Amino acid sequence: MPELPEVETTVAGLRSVLQGSVLTRVEPRRADLRFPIPVDLRQRMTGAKVTGLSRRAKYGLVETDRGDMMIFHLGMSGRWRIDPADIGAHDHLLVETDQGRLLSLNDPRRFGSLDLVRADAWTGYAPFMRMGPEPLGPDFTAATLAAALAGKATSIKAALLDQRIVAGLGNIYVCEALNMAGIAPTRAAGRIGGARLALLVDAIRDVLTAAIVAGGSTLRDYARPDGELGYFSKQWRVYGREGQVCPCGGTVRRRVDGGRSTFYCPTCQK
């Protein structure tokens, strides 16, 4: 599914079209995605001016001059399309602007979500209440990560995927960051020293930043709002590269944990 870099790229694409625009048409084309779509979304968003777009973890935030904030999640297959040539059965939300632009939220599997909250209370949105710090923000440090992992016997990979530890990380970028930091994905999270955690924090920041610059990774149905495919997958060190050569010269292996594939190099990750 789209992870933090893909959502950041999506928000940037939407910002180029929506920032400062008035929404002349907001049309949900079904009653629900993964969860029910607010019944008053059309009424509250139509005629509103977009004053800001941002991201929290894997969620996109669209703020208006009416004090409302639309929160979207792309789920497994969701993406926004800008000025699509045609509208299909999987385009579940249509948005038109006073600049004559059309956007559609396309989600074939319908695992995404749309919600609406008051902008001055968005931090109290239920999914956000349980989240840890943003991995690219100032609150994510080796010290805060060490405190969050203290005493945990779970694997470091499982811990990093726990949104309560750090917000927004997913399978691809956790595999990549652990390889960059030379840490085995199976190592007990609470037994990793401070120096190695500092390397891990830097690796997480570096891999996410590089992925955002590259427009995200192309995986299954993901594409940027302009229709272009992200190309960070060309820079993957281990993810999806079972049997291939790791940058250290070792051989990438794959294991399955909790139904998810973990890619790692036993030569350099200890």
TrEMBL record:
Keyword Cytoplasm: no
UniProt key word Oxidoreductase: no
Catalysis: reaction(s): 2'-deoxyribonucleotide-(2'-deoxyribose 5'-phosphate)-2'-deoxyribonucleotide-DNA = a 3'-end 2'-deoxyribonucleotide-(2,3-dehydro-2,3-deoxyribose 5'-phosphate)-DNA + a 5'-end 5'-phospho-2'-deoxyribonucleoside-DNA + H(+); Hydrolysis of DNA containing ring-opened 7-methylguanine residues, releasing 2,6-diamino-4-hydroxy-5-(N-methyl)formamidopyrimidine
All copies of domain Formamidopyrimidine-DNA glycosylase catalytic, residue ranges: 2-112
Keywords in alphabetical order: DNA damage, DNA repair, DNA-binding, Glycosidase, Hydrolase, Lyase, Metal-binding, Multifunctional enzyme, Zinc, Zinc-finger
PROSITE patterns: FPG_CAT, ZF_FPG_1, ZF_FPG_2
Residues holding DNA: H90, R109, K152
InterPro entries linked to this entry: DNA_glyclase_Znf_dom_DNA_BS, FPG_cat, FPG_Glyclase, FPG_N, H2TH_FPG, Ribosomal_uS13-like_H2TH, Znf_DNA_glyclase/AP_lyase, Znf_FPG/IleRS
UniProt cofactor(s): Zn(2+)
E.C. number: 3.2.2.23, 4.2.99.18
One MF annotation (Gene Ontology) recorded for this entry: oxidized purine nucleobase lesion DNA N-glycosylase activity
Gene3D superfamilies, A to Z: 1.10.8.50, MutM-like, N-terminal (3.20.190.10)
Domain FPG-type: residue ranges: 237-270
Cofactor note: Binds 1 zinc ion per subunit.
Coiled coil (UniProt feature): none
Active site as annotated: P2, E3, K58, R260
HAMAP family (UniProt xref): Fapy_DNA_glycosyl
Family: Belongs to the FPG family.
Biological function: Involved in base excision repair of DNA damaged by oxidation or by mutagenic agents. Acts as DNA glycosylase that recognizes and removes damaged bases. Has a preference for oxidized purines, such as 7,8-dihydro-8-oxoguanine (8-oxoG). Has AP (apurinic/apyrimidinic) lyase activity and introduces nicks in the DNA strand. Cleaves the DNA backbone by beta-delta elimination to generate a single-strand break at the site of the removed base with both 3'- and 5'-phosphates.
Record text on subunit structure and interactions: Monomer.
Name of the protein this chain belongs to: Formamidopyrimidine-DNA glycosylase
